[in-house]
Amino acid sequence: MRTPVVAGNWKMHKTAAEAAAFVEAVRPVASKVTEREIIIAPAFPALAAAAAAAQGSNIQISGQNLHWESHGAYTGEVSADMLVAAGCSHVIIGHSERRQHFGETDGAVHLKVLAALDAGLTPIVCVGETLEQREAGNTETVLREQWSAGVGGLEPAQFARLIIAYEPVWAIGTGRTATPEIAEAAHAEIRSLATERFGGEIAESVRILYGGSVKPSNFAGLLDCPNIDGGLVGGASLPAGSFSDLLLA
Ligand code: PGA
């Protein structure tokens, strides 16, 4: 059985104080949620405050990005060990906004995944096609390429530690959620890539989250799909009330 994940990707929102207040507000609801894994991904300066507020709760903390080197002259970057020291258990890697605005490649995703695993973090690796790619009928090819170059080269034991997020770029922040049918088809495709490369047992155990305009009102329908194991949620994860509704959806 795969435990569903509710992960909030806060992007460039919330200060340290706002993050701590959010965690205080969500803790009582989260404490009643036993059958879901709960993760929030604050911005770097808010990680330690969020982690301190979440201490002793079932709310886990994730980075939104990392550098693959452990230290060095990389102005503006943060290493896996720094995330661990700040209280992170997870890190988002290869988000489409990183790919689109910061030139992140599948090769960089691969290096980041290795660095995260080495430090004991659980990578949440994002893949997904743009609208143009979908309309050109290239969704499967794009997913296959991103998946193969990003995580296909891992050892089976490494791959087993990942969480994958399918995030169609056209659905992110647009209010245009993929229908459960469209999302399920992509998730099934990703799981079949995993089966081909790593075998059924590992492929069946890996969680594949859906991301792209998830809201409390559409989350249950997505979660009902056999290959959708949770959500990576942006906008609707920011208000404590809406995040709490997602936990209970
Ligand atoms: P959204 O973002 O829920 O605001 O569409 C999702 C994401 O980018 O992870």
Distance between the termini: 19 Å
Bound molecules: 2-phosphoglycolic acid
pLDDT averaged over residues: 97
Give the spatial strand order of the biggest sheet. Answer: 7-6-5-4-3-2-1-8
Tally of strands: 8
Shape: globular
Helix and strand string, N-terminal first? EHEHEHEHHEHHHEHHEHEH
Query: What is Rg?
Result: 17 Å
Poorly predicted segments: none
Fraction of helical residues: 40-55%
Main sheet: strands, sense, barrel: 8 strands, parallel
β-strand percent reads: 5-15%
How would you describe this protein?
The protein is an alpha/beta fold and 249 residues long. It has 12 helices and 8 strands. Strands 7-6-5-4-3-2-1-8 form an 8-stranded parallel β-sheet. Strand 3, helix 3 and strand 4 form a beta-alpha-beta unit. The longest helix has 19 residues. The radius of gyration is 17 Å and the shape is globular. The model has no long low-confidence stretch (mean pLDDT 97). The site of 2-phosphoglycolic acid (PGA) has 13 residues, from strand 8.
